[in-house]
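Collaborator request, handled under Task 6.
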Amino acid sequence: MKRALDVCGKHSNGFALDQFCRVAQRRSRLKIEADGRRQLAKMIHHQGTHRRYQLGDGIERNQFTCAGTDAWYERHQRNREAVQKFERELTQAGADLIVQSVTPDLVSEIAKGDPSIVRAWYTRFMSIEANALNRVHNIALLVAQIISKDNPQSAIALFEKLKTSSPYVRVTFGRAGVSLDAVSVWSASDGEELKKLKFKRLDQARTGHEIAVEVLAAIRAGKQETLREYVIDRQSRPEPSHVARAVMVAGLSEESGWTLETIESLKGSHGFLSEAYTAAEYAMDRHRWARHWAKLMGEAKTETDLWRYGVLHAANVDGRFRGSDVTGVTNNSLIERLAPALVIWSA
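Structure tokens returned to the collaborator:
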């Protein structure tokens, strides 16, 4: 962060990107997939202009009406100028934005230093078209997350607008591939309107996997209590579909009294509610067994025991578990010595 905000020092290069390629950030397990080795500012400008003029290479300008052509170029020129102004303001903020340095903390620090900058970004993001928004999609998510604390309505509007765009660089967390979109929404403030947006994401999840990804995003953001409120609300509704979804959310959450109680509430049910109960119970059992085997791994005295418990742990572990949950349970020297191998058991 010190380097990112070094306004006067040698690192104040704005949108410089030393290595725009696959990046793995060890602590957060941040995964970024892209290609090429170029500066981000150049990439944003080049990709946008290259695609734009490549489209017109084989088309004579006089095939269009003069008015329509001029309007088309003017609209895209405005979008390009908006992105370029955004880049210049980042440089003024002293942000040396190498990809793995673009974090909510960085945007938050810029907002603290000069809130007008982040407000201006929000206004610009809301005014540009989806194609231009693709280039700054990920940073726009972070801006929406940060402004949610002071202006939840604006944050919701930006989150909704970002549904129409798709980032050039896809950011995910963990081996489960939790998207930055989900993490940003769940990390936003907990006002009533934003809570409805989070509930809506859970309601619109179409498969068990999509529900699991939303739950993992909530866990990552520390919003287990929000998950509990969702489960209580949906479980109280008369529609069986809401009840089944509530039980699945409980089964995919971390173990606690309310999750176990929610799952047990469907015991003895029939039809698809019985299927929901079976699936939720299975998901929770996996989590409980993973914690059990991890505990024994931390207590292991020999390499053989550590390997045995590790294999059993690997058969049950999922995105709710972290490698630190094993390495942090004890001062076991065996764990410390073999800690690098434990990454294969963390989700």
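The cover message to the collaborator said: "Confidence is low (pLDDT under 50) at residues 1-64, 94-100, 343-347. Strands lie at 23-25, 30-33, 170-173, 178-179. Please let us know whether this matches your experimental observations."
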